[in-house]
Model the fold of this input.
Amino acid sequence: MSGPDLSPGSSQKTTPSADAVMKGRGFYNEHSRPQQKADSLGLPLLERAVGEMSMPRGADLATVADFGAAQGRNSLEPMRLAVERLRRRTSGSTPIVVVHTDLPHNDFGSLFALVEGSPESYLRSVDNAFTLAAGKSFYERIFPDGFLLLGWTAISIHWLSRVPCEIPDHVYAQRAGRRVREAYAEQASEDWRLFLGHRARELRPGGELVVVAVTTDGTGSTGGESLMDLTNEPLLAMVEGGSIRPEEYRRMNMPAYHRTMEEFTEPLRSGALAEDLTLKEAIRAGFPDQLWPEYKQRGDAMAFAASYTEFMRAFTEAPLFAGLDADRTFADRERLANGYFERMRSLIEAKPERARWDWHVALLRVAKRRASVSVH
Done:
């Protein structure tokens, strides 16, 4: 799961410790089971993409990009599927190269430890396969023209390239006022067009891209509005208690936007991008909360709250606490983050149903028509 650039020099005021979007040292790998399960919804599209593409011959590379790889755990299954299906359609002399991309401050150490050491790694599936990494935002060009055979991104594209504006009264734009929502929607549209435009240049003719993304239902609801509010409430309490400064709170937000299916598909129906890319599949799927069934079975609110808090901490801690003032010490940030997530855990334990999020997932399969495109 890639995220926005919150490193020093980006549009968001940051602190020296804000050097990772996903919580590092393998924490995200250990607490992102819901994202991993959502990723699996895209595997049939990935299999169909590989089955229909024209394959390289001989020593010509078959290059696969894993856009927004995070720490690698959730990439193992889709990359293994892609590599195995590619090898069935190519000779052993065709090198298969998987390139994991994410922001420069991503925890690539955990990713490579997993890819090199896990028995589930695609490197153990076939011969003549290789793994590389690129530390760059997927809203920028990463590969040469016509270099990619296949692209994959899952539960990553909701992160924006930058924070378009402060959110004065919430941490999620989709729970804020109209002005903020419109600013985030505009940024999300610009980012999506950039993402597609760059991929259109990077894919070889006939190459394909599979996207798995959180979307909304027909009314524009994410299904997670209650959880978004629950994410905000501990911060409000900490501002009221004086531990977080009001100006810090105004900068503490989740730089994410969940596009509608219309927002995903519109650039691919007409205009310059549609001349170079074709939308082969666009499916909206329901995806039930992955932690809720265990709670319903066991009835253990304490265990559910602990698991859900760790799931939330894996992807919210860095972007939220990047908003702290630069004079905050490392100890300050640790204390405030620990206090925040303890408050979140208590709220979930008191009323577990508030945390339940039944997702809506967009499954998109896009193919390259021709070799060149202009980025708009």
